Amino acid sequence: MLNNISEAIKEVENFSPKTKEDIEVFRLRFLAKSGTLNSFFNEFKNIPNQEKKEVGQMLNKLKNLVKEKTTNPLLSNKTEKKVGLEDLSKPVANNCIGSRHPLSIIEQEIVEIFSSIGFSISEGPEIEDDWHNFTALNVPKNHPARDMQDTFFIQTNPDILLRTHTSSVQARYMQKNDPPIRTISPGRVYRNEAVSSRSHCLFHQIEGLYIDKDVSFADLKQTLLYFAKKLFGKKSKIRLRPSYFPFTEPSAEVDVYWGLETESDYRITKGTGWLEVLGCGMVDPAVLENCEIDSKTYTGFAFGMGIERIAMLKYKVDDLRLFYENDIRFLNQFSNSI
Ligand code: DAH
Which of 217, 275, 292, 334 has a CA positioned 20 to 30 A from the CA of residue 100? Predict the structure, then answer.
């Protein structure tokens, strides 16, 4: 009997079905009531006790092999390929293709909104000179407005610094290009600030610049309203509050209406329903002149916004540091936002 079982085991091991029918024929031969397995088990009852252990083990091996080949042939890769069947209930393969960082997603969204209305994209260096970051923008050395932005200077050369805002790209772009100018400049900026849930020593901004003949404050307001509706939804409202920036005159800060529906709306808007999202204004004629653009012929507007701030609002993230820690549990939550 042992010999017969070994033969059967060999046969089952070598069994390689080509079609569903092959499997069915095979299954019936071994597992049907009058099939090979049952006849072995019947024979088993009659063998002497001392042989039962060995034969029993072989029989179990045969039984398991037959089950494996018949009940789930598709789990074995070899069989699957030959049978050519597809098990549609199988879980999909876990392909980790990665995803974009939430800051990149927001940056891209903002860039696309402005590209669609004719703004080009421009970039400048993160290691910048004093002139482009400050002096050209109406902030000469020792001007108190320099204190608005705590700056990292290079120790050996006080003329070189890490740019504190993307407004430096404005100056570079105006030097190189003649009006009409319509450009946005995304990039990383640095400030010597303590790291907390609300501020960081590095963050990201997008700068916008529009220079042409007869550009007015109304154009600025309308462009920003269009932008807010695209980014935050059709029903968005904006308001402009008078402010001060050295490179624009007049200057304003723009708030977007956030609403006052939940307790957290009250908290983040300090009970007003409005949230500040960017700074803007009409480019100061002195800045145009510094960058060799005739301020008698041309006017323009500029604006600048923090990407982290907008990402925090859109994704309801309450700690800025999460964006830089690269914790996969945080980043995974954005994998569907592409
Ligand atoms: N550069 C300013 C900042 O970092 C933001 C800003 C305000 C940019 C007004 C502008 C502007 O272009 O017109 O705080």
Answer: 275
In this structure, the answer to whether residues 328 and 224 fall within a common structural domain is yes
178: CATH: 3.30.930.10
d(CA 18, CA 22): 6
Is 155 inside a domain boundary? yes
Domain count along the chain: 2
Pick from 247, 251, 253, 309 the residue to mutate for probing ligand 1's pocket: most ligand atoms within 8 Å of its CB: 247
Assess whether 131 and 207 both reside in one domain: yes
Asked whether the beta carbons of 126 and 172 are under 8 A apart, the reply is no
Closest CA to ligand 1's atom 6: 304
Q: Which residue has the least CA distance to atom 12 on ligand 1?
A: 303
Three-state secondary structure along 92-107?
CCCCCCCCCCHHHHHH
User: Is 106 in the same domain as 73?
Assistant: no
pLDDT tens digits, 213-255: 999 999 999 999 999 999 999 999 999 999 999 999 999 999 9
Range of the domain at 170: 102-337
Q: Kindly give the distance from the C-alpha atom of residue 21 to the centroid of ligand 1, in angstroms, as a whole number.
A: 74
Q: How far is the CA of 280 from the centre of ligand 1 (A)?
A: 6
Would 97 be classed as within a structural domain? no
Residue 76's contacts (CB-CB under 8 Å, 6 or more residues apart) are 68, 69
| pLDDT of the residue at 258 | 87
Q: What is the largest CA-CA distance in the chain?
A: 115
For 252-284, the pLDDT digits (tens) are 999 999 888 888 888 888 899 999 999 999 999
Q: Whose CA is nearest to atom 4 of ligand 1?
A: 165
Q: Which ligand 1 atom minimizes the distance to the CA of 205?
A: 4
